[in-house]
Amino acid sequence: MLFISTRGGADLYSSAHVITKGLAKDGGLFVPQKFPRVHIDDIMALHSLGYATSAAQVLSIFLTDYTKEELNAAANAAYGGNKFDDNRIIPLVEVTENTDILELWHGPTSAFKDMALQILPHLLTKALEKTGEKIKVVILVATSGDTGKAALEGFADVPDTEIIVFYPQDGVSAIQKRQMQTQVGKNVHVFGIEGNFDDAQTGVKNIFNDLELANKLKDHGYAFSSANSINWGRLVPQIVYYFKAYASAVANGRIKAGEEINFSVPTGNFGDILAGYYAKVMGLPVKKFICASNSNNVLSDFISTGTYDKKRDFHKTVSPSMDILVSSNLERLLYSITQNSEQVAEWMKELNETGAYTVDEDTIDKIRETFFGAWVDEIETEETIGRVYNDFKYLMDPHTSVAWRACEKYRLLTSDNTYCIVLSTASPYKFNTVVLDSIGQGIGIDAEDPFM
Ligand SMILES: *Cc1c(COP(=O)(O)O)cnc(C)c1O
After folding, report:
1. For the chain, first and last CA: distance in Å?
2. What domains can be seen in the chain, in order of their start residue?
3. Residue 444, pLDDT score
């Protein structure tokens, strides 16, 4: 399979190239030239396979530069052993009659970022062998909290790599900050920046686009790459769990094979939900993706108006991993829907220069066929954690709560009570202060970091 850039050009790239480079030269994002269809029987067949084997199978569809053995080795290194604290890797938990929660946070850093960042370093080092470049890779990461730690954990002491993480110094939780600052490894570097996640992400993108700097680095035998979800190597491992979750839901008797279901996804950079959309494009029976935002509701506004406008106040919320105003992966969706790279490049230029763009009616209508946008404020987020805990004895973190509440809003507004899988992206223990407050068991400690 070959890849193209969302911003055009007729150039085709190999999977090894897109994983080592992260971002296309024209500033666009790499996307597969086309998405192969997967038959429902093949989706169901994944159920009897272990997670690592399933992952290798799905990855092999896209990463055709790699041998089956290489993909199996990478998947086993990522999901095998004792790195995950549940041998199902992604438990699907029944909560109500028509709602399950998919727990994606059983990896080493207690956030769903592990699903991709445990495997990316293995894919990247193999890709470097394949492209034959005798270089060391400098991974630049902008993080709103979880990506940073997950990337550090994944890349620590991986040969021929250095990793540099930038996080907003006042925009991550106490545990997140500690997790990053205490990372062990010879090749790890961590910086708190003044500003928010978008500032960090823009800074990293500017470094990537600095050709002079890139040349200087090359003279010293280094090249930049990205571990953010703009890297295709981050997205493709996320497609896996949509297929696996569906197969589990059938096996658990929640739905029949072939039946359409909904997913509600707590969304920030639009990577997780986009992976689900790609699974649908490949044939997974999905009716709607509920795109759940916190008070940084730029995406739900976009879905309802067709205008993407980042010129608004940035809110620091109790779901900090979703505090984002520029959702980079939306560019991939726009390309997928329009198949028009010139148009996509123009919208992105407008966003860059004016802070906003408006898509045509046809495009937004097509997006609305598959996506429903809803946003959830701070009070609702905490209230939902408390209510779901009281009613169903299920404890969830604030990000998951946003998705749960968005699913309820969707049902109220549309009367569509289709079985829904709510993606749970972080362990409740990672956001313990808010979670305890929400269930009425706050311990009265407000100190951001009790260790300081
Ligand atoms: C990163 C993250 C999200 C948002 O995922 P995107 O792929 O950026 O949309 C949601 N919840 C948690 C806990 C995260 O770490």
Report:
1. 50
2. 1-111+229-452 (3.40.50.1100)
3. 59
